[in-house]
Amino acid sequence: MSDMAEPDIDDASARRLNPHIPHPARIYDYLLGGKDNFAADRAAADELAKYSPGIRAGVRAHRAFLRRAVRHLAAEAGIDQFLDIGTGIPTQGNTHEIAQEIDPRARVAYVDNDPIVLVHGRALLTGTPTGMTTVIEADLRRPAEILTHPDVRAVIDFDRPVGVILAGMLHFLTDEEDPHGLVEQVKAAVPSGSHLLLSHITFDFAPDVDKDGFKKPYEKGAAPMVPRTHDEVIRFFDGWRLIDPGMVEVVTWRPAPDEYQEPIEGGHAWAYGGIAVKP
């Protein structure tokens, strides 16, 4: 596979784009079978597969959880506006596609810190004529920049319930960066009735894995990998009410009867997922 073509991005973004440093969004894209990645990203993903042979099936199971969870928010919880932070490179089954299939008026603001995501997002994440989408380059480490960004404010009405999505990104924040505190700032900015959709990598389902080896490919990249325990992950939902079935392994969160459950080598997807509602 050849490297992707030189992206059409502005000079400031280009200076932040280093094809020699693996980035979580591009590693994830490669594991999903995408083409928007560099050799360094593919090498890191292949190294991960040595420690978790089922990782490709696992990330597809994680993506399936996201689709089911967004469908629940749009169809059952009545959420019609979504703040998707750490969205990653667009692929099939993006938040706005699922939500707007149910409610064509649904609005989605996407946020990611990789310039590649911004480029592809602006090109591909177009919504319905009655809905609206926007894509901004920002970082959860600076939540105020997200919450006050004019493009986000043009799409999201923070006086009405918001579906906040933090899928597969909090494990790229170290404890020193205070991920729980950052999430609390976002939770405080949305009103009662808002929902938090969250997923997070864990070693709880893989007690015998070489933990240092699994994390090593990310140590060379743009962000480290910090798997967390059940107790550490469930803290992100503090003060909000978890909906049934609570925070569980992503493959067991409301599996759809007609959804194909792909076998995962090793038996687990290595990720927790859940949704909570703000009282």
From TrEMBL:
SUPFAM superfamilies: S-adenosyl-L-methionine-dependent methyltransferases (SSF53335)
Protein name: S-adenosyl methyltransferase
Species name: Sphaerisporangium rufum
